[in-house]
Write the structure tokens for this entry.
Amino acid sequence: MRVPRRPRVYLAGPDVFLPESHAWAARRAAICAGFGLEGVSPLDPLPDSPPEWLGLPDWQRIFHHNEAHIRRCDAVIANLTPFRGPSADAGTVYEVGFARALGLPVFGYACVGADLLARTRAAFGPSVAADAAEDWWDGDGLLVENFGLSENLMIAGGILASGGLLLAEDAPGSDRWRDLTVFERCVAAVAARLGVPSAAG
Amino acid sequence: MRVPRRPRVYLAGPDVFLPESHAWAARRAAICAGFGLEGVSPLDPLPDSPPEWLGLPDWQRIFHHNEAHIRRCDAVIANLTPFRGPSADAGTVYEVGFARALGLPVFGYACVGADLLARTRAAFGPSVAADAAEDWWDGDGLLVENFGLSENLMIAGGILASGGLLLAEDAPGSDRWRDLTVFERCVAAVAARLGVPSAAG
């Protein structure tokens, strides 16, 4: 019997900045495997790195490596947990837009349930204020998006249009970078959406 | 004599959140025209909106409108000025990744010259600290990228790989959202890179 290849899912997110990031990547890959998916970390080696990358500065080599990983995957799961401010990590968001234009289904999750306006107000306090029309403005005088979304509409829109979904809820644990509950729920949703039979099946 | 179409350049950025955003878009378009480029704002109407968008919620309609604009353009100029934290606006970063995967040349500019580590330290103070190996960590225990770049390496790498360039310098004016000096320098660089004869020529 031919065993079909498990769908390969690129695991985008600032998790790569954790100490012991390889151990965290292995935990995430194990969760993916439990749902019949192959989780691909940006930290994983690439089987076919072109030799010309060797001469590049580290940051360019990492960049090409990550883009190549995404091009070899069937879907993306992005950790959009707020990172150093109200929004997601910029590198992760780049990868969401990149994958969307490639036509991959993109799934996102955030380990914080509050919407973008609530998070922006929490981060910047009373410098974020509403006018008489109930539009919200930040301290620089720029409008704050208020669609009740978890992220900027381009990200929420790209994920939806790609056929993915965006899951945002407070992680039960106290450390939103190490609690894998929401990630696991997202992986389950990806497996269901991609029609993958469960590993237990 | 056939007049070739001017290159169409999508102007990504959180400028759309300024009050009088249409007036600011017109000023930016005028600068582009001076360099032989057609500046396309996300606020510009789209000639061919599919009728099925009419039934969508506002945020989804805006999303599809913006993606469609990018697909109709020849290049992107992204305002990557730090936005509500050390990094650029998430919606803009999405569009950078999206345009990169479409194969468009992407140009970025930021009206702040300090690099990402310096900006992260300025934003979060002593909670961002170096260890004995001189690696920098934020208050959540996540590594801070330290390649001397203006932005996360995916953004800097995507712009470079696309054939564009990333220009980061302090705007001479006091309001980094309204000073168009760095934008104009970026537009000049785009015109030169795309081989556009100057409008004065």
Notes: Chain A touches chain B through 55 residues (CB under 8 Å). The first helix of chain A runs from residue 21 to 34.
